Amino acid sequence: MTASLRGLRRQALRIFQAALKAADPYEAVLRHVHLDVKPYRNIFVIGAGKATAQMARAIERLLPGRITEGEINVKDGHTARLRRIRINECGHPVPDARGVGGARRIAQIASHAGPDDLVICLISGGASALLPLPAPPMTLAVKQKTTRLLLHCGASIHEVNCVRKHISRIKGGQLARLAYPATLATLILSDVIGDDLDVIGSGPTVADRSSIADARAILDKYGIRTKLPLEETPKPGDKIFEKTRNVVVGSNALAVNAAALEARRLGFHTLVLSTSVVGEAREVARVHAAIAREIQASRRPVPRPGCVVSGGETTVTVRGKGFGGRNQEFALAAAIDIAGLRDAVIFSGGTDGTDGPTDAAGAIADGTTLARAQNLGLDAATFLRNNDSYHFFEATGDLIKTGPTGTNVADIQLILLK
Q1: Distance of alpha carbon 172 from alpha carbon 198, whole angstroms
Q2: What domain count does the chain have?
Q3: Which domain holds residue 205?
């Protein structure tokens, strides 16, 4: 690998770090939240998500000595030092019994709030899995099976969360029902394309626009034959939302804009391609690879040195038995298509620092990746077919490991050419 290429890879990481800094949930809450808490007798803090520990830390700073009780569910390792708000670590992306226990306590706190109380709800990416409270006769085991099936078949986050809302006692506006008639303020760090409030974290405090019929249609679409006892959710216009306010304090667009700004500071001609990237990871990656080749050949859509930034959340239809996540699969597919391209890098990383079930945020590929892999006896196409991107990049040394970042605003993709 040339010194030029090594420098380009370091710049990709700097751009990604700039995106993470802009999506910092602690700073986002401090920037956006201005609460007059004098009218309230009690203040309760509840919530779930990968970034809620840092959001809760900001709330404790803003409201010293005023928090009556609080509990949040977070993914294992995504913690912070809190004084008044309890942290419950639990399973993600497949919910577990620890999550159920925490969700039950969160529901109890909400239901104990009275008309003179304030409930602050913190929601970030991952909340759907981290706030599991199956609606009887639904069991945790059936919910786990349904979640795995939806994740493996390539369903979008909108589809997965539609089903989740209708097999839960807490999602799809039902947490707002429990908190009523208290005042409810929900602070949201969005990991959903378009910042659809009733989709982020399965919208526990938001009126639900979807129906049981929608959930059944999604299950039928993907051939999931499990018989689920679906529950209807509260809809727009319900009186339980009269004292509820939902505020987005951070999003993928903010992170993408910060990445683009850093790229320009580093001297790149920079273009934001989209903050709405969705679809099968390997197919979206091939489009990005084609853009890299276009920049090389014709100086379009930006001249060299060029940087193209995009954000969103792709999906993976799991057909193999390998190990990986959507960002690693994206990078592997891109590596195949940019093989031999000089001084070109494609990066894909999850802003939460954990890509799928792995300990990597994502991976980085360049024009030499395939050649280096072949020298190790690795066939990239075979690894891609087996959805085994993690072990491929582990062998080539191209995994990106940040550890838990404390935030979660979906993914960042970068194309860089010197």
Answers
A1: 7
A2: 2
A3: 33-250
Q: What letters, b where the CB count within 10 A reaches 16 and e where it falls short, cover 406-415?
A: bbbbbbbbbb
Q: Name the amino acid, one letter, at 95.
A: P
Q: In 3D, which of 51, 70, 85 has the Cα closest to residue 201?
A: 51
Pair 313, 329 in one domain: yes
97: Cα within 13 Å, side-chain hemisphere: 1
Under the phi-then-psi rule, with left for phi > 0, alpha for psi from -120 to 50, and beta for the rest, what region is 267? left
**pLDDT at position 62:** 96
Structure confidence by residue, pLDDT tens digits, 300-331: 999 999 999 999 999 999 999 999 999 999 99
Judge whether 26 lies within some domain.
Answer: no
**338 and 400 assigned to the same domain:** yes
Q: What is the mean pLDDT of residues 153-157?
A: 88
Domain boundary among 250, 274, 297: 250
Which residue do the tokens 């196409």 mark?
381
pTM: 0.85
284, 288, 331 from 336: Cα distances, Å: 13, 12, 9
Asked if residues 108 and 86 have their Cβ atoms less than 8 Å apart, the reply is no
In this structure, the answer to whether residues 227 and 272 fall within a common structural domain is no
Alpha-carbon span 281 to 131, nearest angstrom: 27
Residue 268 CA, distance from chain mean position: 27
| Burial class of residue 237 in the structure, from the number of CB atoms within 10 Å of its CB (0-12 exposed, 13-18 middle, 19+ buried) | exposed
Q: Which pLDDT does position 277 carry in this prediction?
A: 95
Q: How far apart are the C-alpha atoms of 376 and 369, rounded to whole Å? A: 11
Domain end among 232, 250, 268: 250
Read off φ and ψ for residue 161, nearest 5 degrees: -70, -30
Q: Quick check: 227 pLDDT over 80?
A: no
